[in-house]
Design a protein that fits this description.
This protein is an alpha+beta fold. The chain has one domain. Helix content is 16%, strand content 25%. It has one helix and five strands. The strands form two sheets. It has a three-stranded mixed β-sheet with strand order 1-2-5, with helices on one face. It is globular.
C-alpha cells in the first residue's frame, strides 16, 4: 500500500504517505482527497499508502518495517493517538 507521486520540481523527492494502524482511516481519507485532485491532472497517478508492517513484541514495543524504498522521498506520516473503537490505550497507539 504505497503512495507515490513525483513532483514536477527537480529538487523534491517522491511524495510518500505512511500510516500506522491507528492513523490508517484518516490516511485513507487524505489519499481519497488527493486522488480526486490528481484525477483532474494530465499525468494521473493513483496514490496509495507505503507498504509497511508493524511488529509488536511480547514486551509491548513496536517495530515498523517498510517494504518499499523510501530513500530521498518526501515522507508524511499520518498517525492518531486517540482511536475510540480500538482496545488499545492512547499510550499503545
Amino acid at each position: 500500500m504505497s503512495i507515490r507521486f513525483t513532483s514536477k520540481r527537480q529538487n523534491r523527492g517522491e511524495l510518500c504517505i505512511m500510516a500506522c494502524k491507528s492513523g490508517k482511516p484518516l490516511a485513507l481519507r487524505v489519499l481519497k482527497y488527493l486522488n480526486t485532485i490528481l484525477a483532474k491532472e494530465d499525468k494521473y497517478i493513483d496514490l496509495k499508502l507505503v507498504d509497511m508492517e508493524e511488529i509488536t513484541f511480547a514486551n509491548g514495543e513496536i517495530k515498523t518495517v517498510t517494504n518499499e524504498n523510501i530513500r530521498g522521498a518526501d515522507l508524511y506520516l499520518i498517525h492518531s493517538i486517540d482511536v475510540p473503537n480500538t482496545e488499545k490505550s492512547i499510550y499503545d497507539n
